[in-house]
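RECORD TYPE: inverse folding
INPUT: structure tokens
STRUCTURE:
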């Protein structure tokens, strides 16, 4: 297949993915009224086909296709209001509250103190989440005002860390009218494209295959959870990508400090980037560098820089609201049944209760220790990928956007089979293929994150086998000298020669 034909095939595959994702986010356009999961499966297959075809496209052409394809897919996602998650309404509200000079951790959305900030877009009688007068009367200490809102969990404080809150405020300033979700969606889509650019530049500097950036740019998870649902996780991923690339190429103390600061800011955006910490602190074999190239990265420097940045962004909020900065995090863990030990999909097949939580923590601790000991410090994305996948397999979340970090790490690492964890998250969220095809509810999470474990294991075996065959093929052929066969000399038969008698006089005396 020549280059032009291959590029056309990639465009066709991405177009199919775009149409299927459009049907996911706008079900009214679907004439067959299919459920989300079959459409998402089709989009994933089209995406993988496009990524496969990209392998033999020239690098310059590939970069153009990766950027244009990613922008086009994000535009499709932004073109319609959010389809599933409604977290973006909390983002909009937190931005509005901060613009009014109020700390976002101080009051819940339905607090009486904030009734003057309500608008018809976020608060109206037909909205999904309602606080009844009876609930208000039964909780007088909470100081709530009855009403309905688009904001989920309207009677609890925000859960998002300070950098995320600063991001919400910035987006609000871009569109202060707050009568549409388009600004927050467009901003998240722009951040997703920025991550693509970071990957292209980073992979190029690391002398790795820049085509791997397509695994992020075209991935259905990135399209649905950034451009459409506008999850703040995409910002955390962007900062984490910058931190990992900075630390992987750090040759000076200044660059190491910058990477540590970025890591701390990423964790202060969404807590999931903390999974990259063991890989960043890895103590595996580090090949020595010439002295003039700079100094080796020191884990202590990174730790101090990251923790300082994390603490610094929390200090203003702690001064204003004290311990309220913890937000809804403890309540979230309780609502998701992690505190009771009944939330772990794979572990729960064998153990339920507090012991399951202990086992989950021990597994994660063991993986973190292995990453810390054996991961290569100049390839932190590999250890971070293993740690993130382990966390997904242990926690088995129903929220597919938690795998955005994993998708970015896969693009840096270059092993597409790990994307199975991102795809599996959609089965955990939407397990129904149809009215008649479903598994028992207890197996949903185990299948969603257990199958990816099998896929990754199979990928590891295949890669090892291919590496062995390549090593054998690369060895020079050794030819043994042929053994000489012993030769048996045949006896030579000679006939006796008759001699004439010599006369006596000729005999010397």
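DESIGNED SEQUENCE:
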């Amino acid at each position: 297949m020549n280059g032009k034909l291959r590029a056309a095939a990639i465009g066709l595959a991405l177009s199919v993915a775009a149409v299927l994702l459009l049907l996911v986010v706008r079900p009214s356009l679907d004439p067959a009224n299919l459920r989300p999961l079959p459409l998402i499966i089709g989009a994933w297959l089209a995406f993988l086909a496009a990524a496969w075809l990209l392998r033999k496209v020239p690098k310059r052409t590939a970069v153009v296709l990766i950027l244009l394809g990613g922008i086009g897919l994000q535009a499709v996602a932004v073109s319609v209001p959010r389809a599933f998650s409604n977290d973006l309404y909390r983002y909009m509200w937190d931005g509005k509250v901060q613009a009014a000079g109020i700390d976002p951790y101080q009051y819940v959305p339905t607090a009486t103190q904030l009734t003057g900030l309500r608008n018809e877009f976020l608060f109206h009688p037909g909205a999904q989440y309602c606080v009844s007068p009876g609930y208000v009367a039964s909780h007088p200490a909470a100081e709530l005002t009855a009403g309905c809102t688009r904001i989920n969990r309207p009677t609890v404080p925000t859960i998002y860390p300070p950098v995320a809150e600063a991001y919400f405020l910035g987006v609000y300033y871009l569109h202060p009218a707050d009568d549409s979700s388009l600004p927050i969606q467009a901003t998240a889509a722009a951040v997703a494209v920025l991550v693509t650019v970071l990957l292209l530049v980073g992979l190029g500097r690391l002398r790795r295959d820049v085509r791997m950036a397509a695994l992020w740019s075209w991935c259905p998870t990135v399209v649905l959870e950034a451009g459409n649902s506008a999850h703040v996780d995409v910002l955390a991923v962007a900062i984490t990508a910058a931190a990992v690339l900075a630390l992987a190429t750090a040759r000076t103390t200044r660059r190491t400090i910058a990477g540590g600061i970025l890591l701390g800011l990423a964790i202060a955006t969404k807590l999931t980037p903390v999974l990259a910490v063991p890989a960043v602190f890895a103590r595996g074999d580090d090949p020595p560098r010439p002295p003039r190239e700079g100094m080796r990265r020191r884990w202590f420097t990174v730790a101090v820089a990251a923790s300082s940045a994390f603490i610094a962004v929390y200090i203003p909020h702690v001064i204003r609201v004290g311990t309220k900065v913890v937000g809804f995090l403890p309540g979230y863990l309780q609502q998701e049944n992690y505190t009771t030990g009944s939330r772990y999909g794979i572990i729960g097949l064998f153990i339920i209760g507090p012991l399951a939580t202990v086992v989950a923590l021990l597994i994660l601790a063991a993986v973190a220790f292995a990453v810390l000991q054996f991961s290569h410090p100049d390839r932190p994305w590999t250890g971070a990928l293993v740690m993130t996948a382990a966390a997904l397999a242990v926690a088995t979340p129903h929220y597919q956007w938690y795998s955005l970090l994993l998708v970015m790490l896969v693009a840096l690492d270059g092993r597409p089979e790990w994307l199975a964890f991102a795809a599996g998250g959609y089965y955990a969220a939407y397990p129904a293929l149809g009215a008649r095809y479903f598994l028992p509810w207890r197996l949903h999470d185990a299948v969603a994150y257990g199958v990816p474990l099998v896929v990754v294991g199979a990928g590891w075996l295949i890669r090892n086998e291919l590496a062995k065959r390549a090593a054998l093929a690369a060895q020079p052929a050794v030819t043994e000298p042929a053994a000489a066969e012993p030769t048996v000399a045949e006896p030579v038969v000679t006939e006796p020669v008759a001699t004439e008698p010599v006369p006596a006089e000729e005999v010397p005396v």
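NOTES: The longest helix spans residues 441-474.
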